[in-house]
Amino acid sequence: MKLQRVIQYAQSLLMQSIEKGEIAVDGTAGNGHDTLFLAQLVGVAGHVYAFDIQQQAVEATLERLAEHSVTNATVLLEGHENVAKHVQQEIAGAIFNLGYLPGADHTIVTKGNTTIVAIEQLLQLLKVGGIIVLVIYHGHEGGKKERDEVLHFVSSLPQKHVHVLRYEFINQKNDPPFIVALEKVKHFPR
Ligand SMILES: C[S@@+](CC[C@H](N)C(=O)[O-])C[C@H]1O[C@@H](n2cnc3c(N)ncnc32)[C@H](O)[C@@H]1O
């Protein structure tokens, strides 16, 4: 297969933007797959900050990190809309998997307004050349509302500062997830 699947493509974007020793953010830790991926990408000299509002997700992520003897990540029981309270350093990249935690309560989902606040804060912290990847799941209750709010927001970002890409398979059934990637090309005025 030549066209990368959504998860593979998300990872290859992060691999392009993040280097060893840098800081990265997982906006939705969930079961910790992306936190682990980012922690391995930044290496022992780097650090990952991972956020989730569910205790179950924080525990699952900590467990996954421990299984792989990963110690360069901080997992916070905290909404990603508060990312700037915990991260003040420049970051090289971030990922969000929107939607609900697989195998848990499907009514606890990410929401457009808080996702947008988190993106705004991360865009300020992001290095030039850094990428924020959003994997947008929109098949669940509330998913289309969040999708539309996020798309409306990212479409209006100034192209002088951010390049916004949508990567999507358009002939698949059942609302497949798609990617929105934001590459910072110039710092914003403070
Ligand atoms: C699709 S799951 C993430 C899957 C995860 N990336 C993985 O590798 O398993 C979405 C997660 O976002 C979390 N979430 C919902 N609202 C949040 C918020 N405001 N801040 C941080 N996490 C949130 C949910 O609790 C859920 O665990």
Q: Could you give a short account of the major beta sheet?
A: 7 strands, mixed
Q: How much helix is in the residues?
A: 25-40%
CATH architecture: 3-Layer(aba) Sandwich
| Strand content bin | 15-25%
Radius of gyration: 15 Å
CATH secondary-structure class: Alpha Beta
Number of DSSP strands? 7
Which residues sit in consecutive blocks of at least 5 with pLDDT less than 50?
Answer: none
Do you know the CATH topology?
Rossmann fold
Determine the mean pLDDT.
97
Report on the architecture of this protein.
With about 190 residues, the protein is an alpha/beta fold. The protein has one domain: Vaccinia Virus protein VP39 (Rossmann fold, 3-Layer(aba) Sandwich), CATH 3.40.50. Helix content is about 35%, strand content about 25%. It contains 6 helices and 7 strands. The chain has helices spanning about 5-15, 35-40, 55-65, 85, 110-125, 145-155, and strands at about 25, 45-50, 75, 90-95, 125-135, 160-165, 180-185. The protein has a 7-stranded mixed β-sheet with strand order 3-2-1-4-5-7-6, sandwiched between helices. Helix 5 (about 110-125) runs parallel beside helix 6 (about 145-155). It is globular, with a radius of gyration of 15 Å. The N and C termini lie far apart (about 45 Å). The model has no long low-confidence stretch (mean pLDDT about 95). It binds S-adenosylmethionine (SAM). S-adenosylmethionine binds next to helix 2 and strand 2.
